[in-house]
Amino acid sequence: MSINDEEIKKLASLSRLDLSEQERKEINADLKEILGLAEKINEVDTTGVEPTYHALPLNNVMRDDEERPSPDPKKVLKHAPESSDGFFVVPQVIEEQ
């Protein structure tokens, strides 16, 4: 598969990149090599080979969801830099209009 300078310019524009002519030539060469490798992979006979979505089998590694008592609010707020009426006090991040 070949790729031309206009396609490189379009990709650069979509990527919000301002490429010099030299950079476009280098990227063109790199993309030709990458696409050549992809075409080579397509030549491999994969008849009867199941698709592999991950190199290793995936298992859910999260713990079971089980009910536990909540921590004591007084102990938790004891470590807060500032608290008020049982709540953490944090800087305002939304500007009022």
How would the blueprint of this fold be written?
Blueprint: H1 5-14, H2 21-42, H3 73-78, E1 83-84, E2 87-88
Antiparallel strand pairs: 1-2
How would you describe what is shown here?
- The chain has a domain at 5-42: Histone, subunit A (Orthogonal Bundle).
- The chain is 39% helix and 4% strand.
- By secondary structure, the protein is mainly alpha-helical.
- The protein starts with a helix and ends in a 9-residue tail after the last strand.
- It is flat and about 65 Å long.
- Largest beta sheet, briefly? 2 strands, antiparallel
How large a portion of the residues is in β-strands, by DSSP E? Answer: under 5%
Unreliable spans = none
**Protein structure class:** mainly alpha
Provide a compact summary of the structure.
This protein is mainly alpha-helical and 97 residues long.
Keywords:
two-stranded antiparallel sheet; Histone, subunit A; mainly alpha; 97 residues
